[in-house]
Amino acid sequence: MSFVEYSDCIRDGDVAIVYLGHESMTPVKVKQGAQTQTRYGVIRHSTDLIGRRYGSKVTCSKGGWVYVLHPTPELWTVNLPHRTQILYTTDIATITMMLELKPGSVVCESGTGSGSLSHAILRTIAPTGHLHTVEFHQQRSEKVLEEFVEHRVDHLVTVRNQDVCKDGFGVSGVADAVFLDIPSPWEAIKHAKAAMKKHGGRVCSFSPCIEQVQKTCLALSDHGFEEINTLEVLLRVHDVRTISLPQPDFGPEPSAQIQPDSTVKPPQKHTSIAVKTTTPPREIPGHTGYLTFATKPRT
Amino acid sequence: MADNVDDDSLYRIKEGDYVVMKRGDIFKAVQIQTKKKVIFEKQWFFLDNAVGQLYSTTFELASGGILQPRKPKDTESSTDTKGAGTDNRNIVDDGKSQKLTRDDIETLKEQGLKGQEIIQQLVDNSSTFKDKTEYSQEKYIKKKKKKYENVVTILKPSCRILALMYHGREPGKICHLRYDTLAQMLTLANIHASSKVLVFETCAGLVLGSVMERMGGYGSVIQMFPGGGPVRAGVESFGFPAHFHDMLHEFPICHLNALLAGTLDTAAKDSSADLKESDLAAEEKPEAEGQGGPEEQSMETNIGDGSHDPKKEEEEKRREAKAQEKKVKQEEKRKKLAAAASLLEGRNADGLVIASRFDPCPVLMALLKFLSPSRPFVVYSQYKECLVECYTKLREQGGTVNLKLTDSWLRHYQVLPNRTHPVLLMSGGGGYLLSGTTVAVELSKPAGSRKDEEPAPKRQKVTETEG
């Protein structure tokens, strides 16, 4: 197992995702001899996990069963321990495409936060790219590095514990893309520019507030960035449901009344029809943040 | 600095390169060919002068369709505005504010005035310009710039640019797949290097090319194609290096049943090779018919057969050569088919991406069989209903978890000091996605016995729902 390469079977030391039911999953560090408690009973790692194929159904001690899934950055995003507000898959997907990330890309990111986006970036730039990620919170930077090691992606990433607004990314002239998710991105634009390749590249700033976007856009154009474009993307979920719609009784039809001697009287029953449709969830995230993209021209 | 060494050669436009031309928000993909006229935004020109220049260079269009790299200073030059009004109370749209006529402007153009100069003329000859507010003046100049500045930027193609281009120019060709939806697909399907991905698309090759870009030449992509041959004009536009095409395989969906039944014969044995060939020849027939008239052809040859002997010989030779060529081609085709089949036979693909105008349900059901357990898949459709059907079928048959039917909502913003607001027009919809993860299928128990994903049908009280 690695977050950048699939394996067929579960091995000691892997991180597996245990699927307990709809939208209910939990990450498990697989360890010889260890046990994991679930609502369906105990999972014994040595016998239930190690050596089994990813995607297998595992029966727990109480007779319930779970599926054990291979980790992916997307599953990690919905299962990771939150140490900060995180980026979700919809924004991540848009960022990945709009930053033109692909295998071999060199990317700078700040802040690292809980590492949700970092894992997705690493997946996309492997096996030849590199991620320079900067986090000013020391414990967070240490914790995320631990996770990178556990997820076997540490060879693709350098974690730096510094303030990007003051000290930049710690590299210059190497990045194809820069991503900023910090409170005052406009203060880091000059560092973003310095970190990027001479021939240019793409930059993205994620900010929840429009005032931040205003300042960032001004800073971007002051530093010569082009194609500045701000957008917002939201996920709309459609829950598939079979609903039943009752039909009201309109009384007997006139044609039936014309023949009073008709022997068969249609039974007046309340009928209903079943419809397969989708319904929106009652509440959805209506705002995550504004994504501002720009192109650094050749300098 | 890491790239002190000037490796600009990597970023220079070469003859034969696939590039994208850009003006404003308009894109067009084209191959660089010298002495070839290209038409972009109702103007024709030659790309000869682009060769040797760096990518992302903006060119100005000179007379005779010649491109000239724009000097960096030109972007700085601004129009002289001379004061502004405070509001629009004194501006009346009587169509008389501009003193220059269309003919005057044409004359200016013929005199070889640059876009910038023409705009200055327009401003100077507008009686209302000075009364417009600063914001309005800015907007006016921007609008005129779009019309009179004959510039074109030449870009290196990428998934982002091509997705934007197709969506803007020919959405019908890509089943109205919006760029952010494509972005979701690539992420939801966990497309990355060194994996084995199945793609079924009728989006001109845009989806296939995007998958290939994300795989960076590592791993394998198998294009499952309907009909006579794979359509992938869009893949060309990406301008991938040659080795990227080594990872691309193709498999005709019309052989899928045979492959699933284990009756597909692709063995390289000599004895079976003949059989196979005739098989393939038979398969090619409908194509030929489509091109119009095998009957006509045979009639022609019949006439030829009868009368002229020398001609007949020549004809025979030609036919023999053609047959030989065909044989070689068929052998190649057979080998390709065998290679793709052997990749599929392991039924251990790592990802599945479907985006087509076909009914997705049967395609999804057939292709899911080729995925390993615990692998993601994603299906795009312009219509929600067919994905509801897929969802229902998958819930019935089991073998998948984390099913999700979604679409995305995308809004662009104008960000200007004191004038920030959403862009007035937005896309009404970018299509729907069904995504999920495969799991091992247990033969004994009917899967999906745990009814946790969809609650039992509830009687919905219509009268109560809307308040």
TrEMBL record, chain A:
It is an enzyme of class 2 (transferase). S-adenosyl-L-methionine binds at residues 114-117, 135, 163, 181. Its EC number is 2.1.1.220. It catalyses: an adenosine in mRNA + S-adenosyl-L-methionine = an N(1)-methyladenosine in mRNA + S-adenosyl-L-homocysteine + H(+); adenosine(58) in tRNA + S-adenosyl-L-methionine = N(1)-methyladenosine(58) in tRNA + S-adenosyl-L-homocysteine + H(+). Signal peptide: none annotated. Coiled coil: none annotated. PROSITE patterns: SAM_TRM61 (PS51620). Gene3D superfamilies: 3.10.330.20, Vaccinia Virus protein VP39. Heterotetramer; composed of two copies of TRMT6 and two copies of TRMT61A. Catalytic subunit of tRNA (adenine-N(1)-)-methyltransferase, which catalyzes the formation of N(1)-methyladenine at position 58 (m1A58) in initiator methionyl-tRNA. Catalytic subunit of mRNA N(1)-methyltransferase complex, which mediates methylation of adenosine residues at the N(1) position of a small subset of mRNAs: N(1) methylation takes place in tRNA T-loop-like structures of mRNAs and is only present at low stoichiometries. This is tRNA (adenine(58)-N(1))-methyltransferase catalytic subunit TRMT61A. It comes from Eleginops maclovinus.
UniProtKB/TrEMBL annotation, chain B:
Residues 271-288, 306-332, 449-467 have a biased composition (Basic and acidic residues). GO terms for biological process: tRNA methylation. The keyword Nucleus applies. It is found in: Nucleus. Keywords: Nucleus, tRNA processing. GO terms for cellular component: nucleus; tRNA (m1A) methyltransferase complex. The keyword Glycoprotein does not apply. Residues 66-96, 271-332, 444-467 are annotated as: Disordered. Substrate-binding subunit of tRNA (adenine-N1-)-methyltransferase, which catalyzes the formation of N1-methyladenine at position 58 (m1A58) in initiator methionyl-tRNA. Heterotetramer. Belongs to the TRM6/GCD10 family. This is tRNA (adenine(58)-N(1))-methyltransferase non-catalytic subunit TRM6. It comes from Eleginops maclovinus.
